[in-house]
Amino acid sequence: MHALLVIAHPDPKSLSHGIAARIAEGVALSGAGNSTEIGDLAAEGFDPSFGLADIAVHRREAPPPAEIVAEQARIDRADALVLVYPVYWWSMPGLLKGWIDRVFANGWAYEAGPDGKVVKKLRHLKVHLVGIGGADARTYARHGYFEAMKTQIDHGIFDYCGACVVTSELLLDSDSQDPGLHLEAARAIGRNLFDAATHCEATAA
Ligand SMILES: Cc1cc2nc3c(=O)[nH]c(=O)nc-3n(C[C@H](O)[C@H](O)[C@H](O)COP(=O)(O)O)c2cc1C
After folding, report:
1. Higher pLDDT, 196 or 71
2. What is the model's pTM?
3. Count of the separate structural domains present in the chain
4. Cβ(89) to ligand 1 under 6 A?
């Protein structure tokens, strides 16, 4: 089994990168032959701005640019897609949002028909979300941010395309919490990545 870990953080020494590395370690421990590829969007210089070429793809007037086809191909090669990102303004960083805007394009991730019906094209894709936030769980609960993020990201993006969000974790208190606890949790996420996700089977049907 193969996982694509997409990380959106500019600093390779950050906790977010440490967490991605631990998830990869966990995957390697989860079974002989299990592998990961790291998509480090900042280091790779991914351009998150949705431009004219992307609008043409969205309107089905042109095929996707080569760099977008390459991103779609590495998702297609993976059994699981893991997004690792710091929470910025109760959402994902612009770099990752732009990656989704451009890569999860009309025609590849979903297909909007002339009758207004949407065909979900990523029913085979298993997704794991790992957000790292500085605020504490009480703050998230008090303001409804847990629910808001789930609605917007898990449901609004991935369910729209038919992908199954197998796990959705927020590792909080990142500035004051012992980082060792988050790193341990990350390793466990990696170890369990390919475990049976029965609730996904109905989605995939
Ligand atoms: C621009 C910006 C916005 C942020 N917004 C939030 C936020 O909305 N909620 C939150 O819990 N933490 C927020 N934080 C804190 C980061 O999530 C936290 O510092 C980060 O996850 C720490 O991990 P790192 O070492 O990988 O950067 C924000 C940080 C920055 C730089």
Report:
1. 71
2. 0.95
3. 1
4. yes
